[in-house]
Amino acid sequence: MMSVTDPALCRRTTLRYTALILGLSCYAPFVDLTNTWFALESLPLNGYFLYLAWKFYKESDSANSRKLFRFSLIQLPALMLLMLINKKKQSNVEDGTLQPV
Fold it and tell me: Are 54 and 43 in contact (CB under 8 A)?
């Protein structure tokens, strides 16, 4: 609906949130969600996603929007899979149920 009522807002929002995904993926190791490899492995994936969003921002024709949409169908599950593979094990030392990492 946003693309019909305000196409410029749609382009800005797409670019903004794509850049945010890249930033959050690089930030995940610093808050102990993942290891450093996640940031390195997800960088090409998120970089290409940001590139496609930039192309859509500059020229929002149907070809660019389709490329961006189709890549998002691959990128988002791949990002979640990388996060699952590279997650850090959490420990609960207070309960004594898990050993410290």
Answer: no
CA 85 to chain CA mean position, Å? 15
Q: Given a cut of 90, is residue 88 above it in pLDDT? A: no
Indicate the length of the chain as a whole number: 101
Q: How confident is the model over 90-101, as a mean pLDDT?
A: 59
Global pTM?
0.81
Q: Is 24 helix (H, G, I), strand (E, B) or coil?
A: helix
Distance, CA of 56 to chain centre: 17
Are 54 and 67 within 8 A, CB to CB? no
**Backbone conformation region of residue 88, classed left if phi is above 0, alpha if psi is from -120 to 50, else beta:** beta
Q: Please choose, from the candidates 4, 78, 93, the residue with its C-alpha nearest in 3D space to the C-alpha of residue 42.
A: 78
CA angle 2, 81, 57 (to 5 degrees): 30
Give yes or no for a contact between 76 and 45, defined as CB atoms under 8 angstroms apart.
no
